[in-house]
Amino acid sequence: MARLSQLTFHPFKGLKRFLPETLLARTLTILIAPVLLIQLATGIVFWDRHWSKTTETLAEGIASNVAAIIDIADFKESSPPSFSDLQQFARKNYAISLARSDLQDGFSKHILLKSDWTDEWTDDFLQEALALKVKYDTRFRTFDKHITIQVAAKKYLYTFDVNKKYLIPKTTSLLIWWEVGAPLFFIFIAVLFMRNQVRPLQSLANVVEEFGKGRDVSTFKPSGALEVRRVGKAFNQMRERIHKQITQRTEMLAGISHDLKTPLTRMQLELALQKDNPEKEALLEDVHEMKKMVEEYLGFAKGEGAEREKTLMLDEFLREFFTKFPQEHLSLSSFSELQGTPVIWRPYAMKRALTNIISNALRYGDHVWFQGSMTSKMITLTFEDDGPSIPPNRREDVFRPFVRLDESRNTETGGYGLGLSICQDIITAHGGSIFLEDSPKHGGLKVIVHLPI
Fold first, then answer.
1. pLDDT of 267-298, one tens digit each?
2. How far apart are CA 303 and CA 349, in angstroms?
3. What does CATH list as the number for 307-452?
């Protein structure tokens, strides 16, 4: 059965490589392809049937006119009238210019060569019609605007000049305009309508992307077709539920902060009024540690809080940020690649996330190396230190709240296990990601942060 499933035929799998990627382009392809095929089929049928039949009829008409004039000329050769009357008759009734010259053993020295007109198919029609209608030998040659036909009659060589428009069907130009103009017109109309239909979906995709980057999209209003509006309303409901959940969490933790910090402050004051003794110092240290833990936990749970996004220049933001740290412990790469790059961030939240990364690196190492790079859609910030690295099987654990790799109870060295958790929370809220690797250059930990532009 497994072998049969591998041999399953997928007729459209290879075709997907040639299809456009966007919905608008695919929809237009589905609409345009049948129209072009129908027009192509119509054109083939027209050229093969109607155009050839019409050209054949026109060629027979020209040959019939030539034959009629030759018959009149043969009749009048026995009782010769003025040749100018025959010329006038041909010009007036058939729109043909007629000339006559002496005939010497068949065609004269004015014999015409074979036609040099590129449309040999039309020449074939005219040649067959002349052979059928005219009883004498004929030769003809087509030029840009006229056709010259010579007929070797009994005594004279007659030369006919016919306007070439009488051999070309008048519907040819109409066909060309219909074959080209009509599809272009309907394609233009289809593009206008499809753009209006796809635009609300593109707007929804942009809003979802912005929401994934943690930006405010509360002004979004669903529009477009019924299905697109349903998706937009579902997205708005989901966004409101997420926002309500975060707000409730923040308000709940604000209440916990008030409830916990008040008794802790009272306990700290009561202990300060007591006499100094070893038990007092131990209790004060525990109360102080609990207050710090509560504050750090609240900071982690609140994340960025209600801070608004701001447009920042990336290089200026980083230069100002790194001034807070001892420069002898930092090695910064050039900011030229990041210069002039605008980003939409919550500045205080982002500073807190980056501060946690550098503080963690300096806690376990002595030096931090920073490097920034970017592409058209992504910013990459890399931090490397010379301290001990983190085992690969524990790298996911360090992003969990209150998980410490240092199992000692000394919070001054091990912290509370919230630094990287807060960092990941903030970076994820900005639509980014954070990864941990070994630093091959410096032997420590390498932290890689990706953030969208």
1. 877 777 777 777 777 777 777 777 776 776 66
2. 7
3. 3.30.565.10
